[in-house]
Design goal:
The protein is mainly α. It contains 5 helices and 3 strands. Helix 2 crosses helix 5. The protein is elongated. It starts with a helix and ends in an 11-residue tail after the last helix.
């Protein structure tokens, strides 16, 4: 037996999403760009991927000299949820194969984080990440034995 209420609900949700897609993509693009700008203010940081030709709800950024998984744990304690790597490989502790394919060193790729924005993401959420992230990066770099040159980001 088909789940008729579920089918009708899905159709309604898709209709609403389609109607609001352009407006929502514009809102998310603004938030994404604000997040990128704020995070790139942290020294030894690089945006992974094209600066504008990208999804409106995704930011993948690398912080040299930190361990991405450690940053995930510190951010989790702050109720900020991110991931290392890509969504299709989120269970792996290895750096993103996509980031490695761009030619970034293994050590530099290990500091990449993926931030995903959604319908519930607000300006306050973005401002909070921008406020919290520098302290976490500073703390992780202070305990890191790695101090790579920026040439590894080229």
């Amino acid at each position: 037996t088909e789940n008729v209420p579920g089918i009708v609900g899905l159709a309604a949700a898709l209709s609403i999403a389609r109607e609001e897609m352009e407006k929502e993509n514009a809102r998310l693009t603004t938030l994404r760009d604000r997040l990128v700008e704020g995070l790139l203010a942290i020294p030894k940081t690089r945006l992974n991927g094209h600066p504008t030709e990208r999804l409106p709800n995704n930011v993948n950024i690398s912080f040299l000299d930190i361990e991405g998984e450690a940053a995930v744990l510190y951010l989790d304690a702050e109720k900020i949820f991110v991931s290392t790597g890509s969504a299709c490989a989120s269970a792996s502790l290895d750096p993103s194969h996509v980031i490695l394919a761009t030619g970034m060193s293994y050590e530099a790729a290990h500091g990449s984080l993926r931030f995903t924005l959604g319908r519930q993401t607000s300006e306050d959420d973005i401002d909070r990440v921008i406020a919290v992230m520098p302290g976490i990066v500073r703390k992780l770099r202070a305990m890191s034995p790695v101090n790579l040159d920026m040439k590894y980001f080229a």
